[in-house]
């Protein structure tokens, strides 16, 4: 079994961006996973990105590989703000990024990862095994879907989580209840409505929080008062978009507080006219239980404290994600226990390394350490250069140690014949 220095698990934006940085730095590495698998298979065709176009580029080690560069090359329309980038354009852009800057991506999944001595051993779905000195986990939101207890255990034919979409053709002409009040719920409701399904959104909130439409060409005073940043408008967004290293230095309680009170359930500006007046929305509504009756799913809900029943062909839980590394079934128990020390969340050093030396986590799973920017592609601009720099630094330190190992530890040669 040959030894690779670094193996990246996951070929989405985070894994690909890091691979580009490692390749540029000459680090021996491999990258595993279906290229842009989550974006190609689990998101609905026709979806528009929530992030602004200028904030949707994978970070590259050199210039010339942003969404803007891609659109210019392909003659596609581009505006940094207020454009609503189509999913299809973003995926094509990311595949172009990979074909230019990332080495060969092996479209296999990891079945098992364990630590043996100072190395990591990986078993793959194609039957091979690999060994590496370092492993980076870049699996996005995989395994973290949260379903409310009331909807758990319903047969898959009647209930699913928004993480799984995917083509929505199956829902044409059907009654679809969607639980949730954020971008996933609202985005799915618009697409389903336009497809000819009858979508009904059930949300706890008393109104939808809509993002304001970004305005290009604001005057300097307006931009100084509320600058545009990767995650939105305002100085708070600037801090959270640009300074994840400072966020990491905050007290864990403060970090948790910020995570709980920023970027709550909300809808992108471009969804407003596709939802309001077109999709049925029940506010202040909570699902208490569910059952199957006459081939339909019946939800027992409380709306403004009053009991009601909502019947549908299918219910989608658009109820978000919660990081829990223990959900990664491929991690050996000792690795999962060692890194999931805060109710499943990994505690990370300032260079994204877990408590297991040589094991790193990048992307949404490290949002509680580095802030909400890690939930977005924009965060690749922080994670990729930092992790690549640390790996290069470790390699150099290792090479120095190997060059002079005798100085510190070699025993003195025995003198003989005196
Ligand atoms: C509906 C929806 C809309 C979103 N819209 C936006 C948006 O507009 N802008 C934005 O910035 N973010 C958006 N996000 C968040 C987005 O998913 C993340 O920002 C981004 O995809 C994280 O990238 P990643 O590389 O960490 O993971 P992912 O893109 O999820 O990639 C994971 C990779 O891991 C691979 N993989 C999975 N299991 C294994 C395994 N066992 N072994 C090997 N490889 C494996 C997959 O094939 C894939 O290559 C959205 C998320 C959702 C769910």
From TrEMBL:
Lineage: Bacteria, Pseudomonadati, Pseudomonadota, Betaproteobacteria, Burkholderiales
Family: Belongs to the lysine N(6)-hydroxylase/L-ornithine N(5)-oxygenase family.
A GO molecular-function annotation: oxidoreductase activity
Superkingdom of source: Bacteria
Protein's organism: Paraburkholderia sprentiae WSM5005
Protein name per Swiss-Prot or TrEMBL: FAD-dependent oxidoreductase
Pathway as given in its UniProt record: Siderophore biosynthesis
Pfam family, one: Lys_Orn_oxgnase
Keywords: FAD, Flavoprotein, NADP, Oxidoreductase
Cofactor(s), names only, from the UniProt record: FAD
């Amino acid at each position: 079994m040959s030894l690779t220095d670094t193996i990246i698990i996951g070929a989405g934006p985070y894994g690909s961006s890091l691979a580009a940085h490692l390749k540029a730095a000459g680090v021996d590495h491999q990258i595993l996973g279906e290229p842009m698998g989550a974006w190609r298979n689990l998101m609905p065709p026709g979806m528009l990105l929530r992030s602004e176009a200028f904030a949707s580029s994978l970070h590259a080690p050199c210039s010339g590989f942003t969404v803007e560069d891609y659109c210019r090359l392909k003659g596609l329309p581009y505006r940094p703000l207020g454009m609503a980038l189509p999913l299809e354009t973003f995926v094509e852009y990311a595949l172009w990024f990979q074909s230019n800057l990332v080495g060969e991506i092996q479209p296999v999944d990891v079945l098992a990862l364990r630590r043996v001595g100072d190395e990591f051993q990986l078993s793959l779905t194609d039957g091979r095994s690999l060994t590496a000195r370092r492993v980076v986990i870049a699996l996005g939101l995989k395994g973290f879907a949260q379903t409310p207890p009331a909807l758990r255990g319903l047969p898959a034919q009647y209930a699913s989580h928004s993480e799984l979409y995917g083509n929505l053709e199956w829902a044409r002409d059907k009654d679809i209840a969607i639980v949730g009040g954020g971008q996933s719920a609202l985005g799915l409701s618009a697409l389903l409505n336009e497809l000819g399904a009858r979508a009904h959104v059930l949300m706890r909130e008393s109104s939808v929080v809509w993002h304001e439409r970004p305005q290009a060409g604001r005057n300097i005073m307006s931009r100084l008062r509320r600058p545009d940043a990767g995650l939105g408008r305002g100085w708070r967004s600037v801090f959270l978009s640009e300074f994840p290293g400072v966020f990491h230095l905050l007290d864990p309680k403060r970090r948790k507080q910020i995570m709980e009170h920023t970027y709550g359930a909300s809808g992108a500006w471009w969804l407003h006219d596709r939802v309001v007046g077109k999709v049925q929305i029940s506010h202040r509504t909570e699902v208490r239980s569910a059952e199957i009756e006459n081939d339909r799913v019946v939800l027992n809900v409380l709306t403004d404290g009053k009991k009601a029943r909502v019947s549908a062909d299918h219910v989608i839980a658009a109820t978000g994600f919660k990081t829990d590394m223990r959900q990664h079934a491929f991690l050996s128990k000792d690795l999962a226990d060692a890194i999931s020390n805060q109710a499943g969340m990994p505690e990370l050093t300032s260079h994204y390394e877990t408590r297991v030396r040589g094991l790193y986590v990048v992307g949404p799973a490290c949002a509680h350490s580095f802030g909400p920017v890690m939930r977005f592609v924009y965060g690749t601009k922080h994670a990729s250069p930092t992790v690549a720099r640390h790996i290069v630094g470790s390699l150099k330190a290792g090479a120095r140690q190997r060059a002079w190992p005798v100085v510190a530890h070699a025993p003195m040669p025995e003198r003989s014949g005196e």
